[in-house]
Amino acid sequence: MTTSLSSGRALRGLGFLAMLFPLAAAAQQQPAGSIRGTLLDQATGQPLPFTNVVVLRAQDSSFVAGAETAENGRFALEKLGLGNYLLKATAVGYQGLRRAVALTSAAPTLQLGPMKLKSTATQLAGVTVQGERAAVQESLDKKVINVEKDLSSVGGTAVNVLQNVPSVTVAPDGTVSMRGSSNITILIDGKPSNSANSGAGGNRLEQIPASSIERVEVVTNPSARYDAAGAGGVLNIILKKQKKDGWNGQAILNVGTRDKYNTSLSLNRRTGKLNVFGSFDLRDDHYRSRMWSDQYTTLENRTLRTYQQGNNLRHSKSYNGRLGFDYTLPANQTLTFTVEPNFNRSRNTGTQLATLSGDTTARIGSTFRVTENIDNLDASVDYRRTWDAHKGRELTGSVNYTFLNADVVVAQRNTEGSNDLREWQQDLDVRLNAVAGQLDYVHPLGEKARLDAGFKGQYQRNGGTDNFLRQQADGPAFDRLPDRSYEYTFRELTQAAYATYQQEINKWRMQGGLRAEYTHTSGEVLNGNGPFRLRYLNLFPSATVERTLPGKDQRVKLSYSRRLNRPGFMQLLAFPLYQDQRSYRIGNPTLRPEYINAFELGHQVSVGQASLTSTLFYRHTDNTIQRLVRVDEEATQRYGSGAVITAQYVRNFGQATSYGAEVSLNQPLAKWWRLTASGSLFQNTVTAATGNEANRRIISGTARVMNSFTPTPKLDMQLTGNYRAAAVTAQGRVAPVGSVDVALRQRLFSDRAALTLRVSDIFNTQRNRSESFTENFRAEYYNKWESRVGYLGFSWYLGSNKPPKKIENQPQGGGGGFGG
Fold it and tell me: Topology with regard to the membrane (predicted)?
């Protein structure tokens, strides 16, 4: 069947058969006969479990007996009297089957063998038309992107999926932004991930296979129901949860050019009230890149310049698992338990050559090595209760636990141009434990109104060490330098409560809400800055009004929300983290949250099969958190040789505004060709870092065009182009970047398998280029990573799973293997 029957329907079916059993018993004449057989899907040959089969008397169509097929599609009707009967089989989504049968004294047992039911899907000119979700679905407070409608990230990771989500951009380091802001909240199955958007603990998104993602919910202006954190909005990544009866699954093998491999297996088994699911994903990738930077500074009437170039190879291995079960309890209750262990091992090696000029001219060659060992465990228990007598009433609760242990070692050794050729290392060890609990309740007030309320609490405990090591002069051993080594502690407690009210009146829909959040943050860097403590209580209102316009299918919507951006622990803790021997980043314990007021005005119209969505937005930020670069004059003087030492830091100052427009179009151009396009154009204004110049502003934007082709019923093709215009920062500018991808997928073996071929960034144009400048400092940065990659993937579908009838995802440049 195209969709599995719920256990509730199965119970109702059994109850129905139980009530009719006395009638069947009275109708039997000679309880000696039986009828057996198997029901199959005509297209795939797969068994049809839990399908109704009944036997009627031939002369008057009166009921005699009934049964349901087992998981293997088999059925047996026992203790039938001899005579002529009519056998009927019915299943949702299939044409009914009728067959005349006879039981005689010579043949009281009838073996019908396999019988095939035809799907009710309609075939039109080689294109399969079935009931399926749209690529983009709009609701009052969010936009839902169904991943299987795209062919640009399967075999990749969650980072690659987000690269093709409207309103979202992904930087080369994996940092995710919405409408130019990286201060967003990323949820996984509605739960916060403490390492989702970069950070010292690694990027959790790079550990989630794209093939395990069902959809992405984009909330650009969240209501009070959502956490107030995330200035730019909320992204909720929903993972697939197989609930089909019996055994189902998917096996994937992917190969990319220049040593990129990915394989995964997902399985589930549903029997009655219990559904057990699990998956495993293994990745082994090599990626290459090259970079250069050119820095100038003026110190005491001297101009120093450092030009640095390098090449590196990143080899990463990740092992990701997921195991859990759903259990149906009495009174419409379900309980879900999930545990997700993830292990990442990576090694980034390379060479650098720095050319110094100013007081002296020198060349300094070096090698570097970065190793990351990251262990992450997420566990959750979820509860859900609904009421048959009160449609829409719902109670949900969850308890989540996260453990993260990360050990990151940065090592570098000069090979020429220096009298000291000893290696130095910085060993950062992070240990994080977090627990969160949430309770949400939805209460309908009539048919067109409802009240939502909930509570949430989250506590995070984080501690670690940052040891600076120097190789001994006479051997391979290392000494710890106490004056450059640190230990830190960090605690954060957040508590929240919210209530929202939603009402529909004629063609109007309205929603208003209020959220209260209390945050208590504390931390300390031993051998560094003393303890810090932050406490703040804030109220966050939200409101949305939507109007359905007369005439054509179109709606207009206006929304408002107040948000905040809490500084993370790596932004608050003041100890240096070296990227190489001439640059580091450091936190700021005086950092405070920034606050955002956001407005949106949207319009959606559908004409035939085409849909057009447009949005005007405005966002104003106070107490803005700015990321800055400065010259560390003391370290520059101590280093000598004319080298420039820079520090990256953050601080609150000024305001920022962003306003603009977004447009998305979904238009079929032919039965075999569909166009999906989206774009944004906006102006960003930020307070200049020096305070001696006008605020920095630029008109920027993004664009994405995807052409999907279906030249044959089994072959899908896709051509996708992406572009991100230039953007400004408080101290500089980021250059534009774009790319074009091409992919195709062929379904095989009666839709039991799929073969995919893809080339990412076919013109090899993806790179990151930026510039920064202050009163006495100017720098340019360039990084070109391996983005033009060929991929080949093979997917095998188990049980009732099949390749989607529409084009699905494939890998995006910059990560992962390939597959369905």
Answer: Multi-pass membrane protein
Which bin fits 247, alpha (ψ -120 to 50), beta or left (φ > 0)? beta
> Please, are residues 516 and 527 in contact by the beta-carbon 8 Å criterion?
no
Reduce the DSSP state of residue 801 to 3 states and report it: coil
Residue with tokens 């989630």: 208
* Burial of residue 698, with CB atoms counted within 10 A of its CB: 0-12 exposed, 13-18 middle, 19 or more buried: middle
Q: Residues, the chain, total?
A: 820
Closest listed residue to residue 63, CA positions, set 38, 89, 12, 28: 28
Phi, psi (degrees; rounded to nearest 5) at 363: -120, 130
Choose among 256, 41, 276, 1: nearest CA to 131. Answer: 1
- Largest interatomic CA distance in the chain: 114
Q: What does the pLDDT read at residue 803?
A: 64
Residue 320 dihedral angles phi and psi, to the nearest 5°: -125, 135
Phi then psi dihedrals of residue 654, to 5 deg:
75, -165
Q: Phi and psi (nearest 5°) for 117? A: -105, 140
Closest CA to 125 of 669, 708, 711, 751: 711
Task: Return the structure tokens found at 634.
Answer: 């003391």
CA-nearest of 559, 579, 573 to 530 is 573
Average pLDDT over residues 489-516: 94
Residue with tokens 């992107």: 145
pLDDT at 641: 59
Three-state DSSP class for 7?
helix
Residue 314 tokens read as 């990143």
Identify the CA nearest to 220 among candidates 630, 655, 616. Answer: 616
Strand partners, 708: 674, 718
What are the structure tokens assigned to 143, written together? 């936009």
For residue 298 the two structure tokens come to 């003026």
* Cβ burial, residue 236 (10 Å; 0-12/13-18/19+): buried
Burial status of residue 338 (CB atoms within 10 A of its CB: 0-12, 13-18, 19 or more): buried
SS3 state of residue 74? strand
C-alpha 707/C-alpha 348 separation (Å) is: 36
Q: How confident is the model at residue 478 (pLDDT cuts 50, 70, 90)?
A: very high
Does this model's pTM top 0.85? My answer is no
* Sign (positive or negative) of CA dihedral 141, 143, 146, 147: negative
Here the tokens at position 168 are: 């979202």
Name residue 197's amino acid.
N
Which strand (E) or helix (H) includes residue 779?
A: strand 777-785
Partners of residue 135 on adjacent β-strands: none
| Pairing mode of beta strands 83-90, 97-103 | antiparallel
Task: Give the mean pLDDT of the chain.
Answer: 81
**Secondary structure (H, E, C), 275-323:** EEEEEEEEEEEEEEEEEEEEEEEEECCEEEEEEEEEEEEEEEEEEEEEE
The rounded radius of gyration (Å) of the Cα atoms in the chain is 31
Residue-wise over 727-737: b if at least 16 C-beta within 10 A, else e?
A: bbbbbbebbeb
- Which residues on neighbouring strands pair with residue 357, listed in sequence order? 305
Beta-sheet strands, E only, within 571-689: 577-580, 583-585, 594-607, 610-622, 625-631, 646-652, 656-670, 673-686
DSSP 8-state code for residue 165: S
Give the angle subtended at the CA of 422 by the CAs of 416 and 424, to the nearest 5°.
115
Task: Determine the average pLDDT of the residues in 513-522.
Answer: 96
Element of type H or E holding 24: helix 7-27
Q: Count Cα neighbours of 158 within 13 Å in the Cβ-side half-sphere.
A: 29
Report the distance separating Cα 650 and Cα 25, nearest Å.
81
Structure tokens at 86: 């009519």
**Which DSSP symbol is given to 572?**
H
**pLDDT value at 697 more than 70:** yes
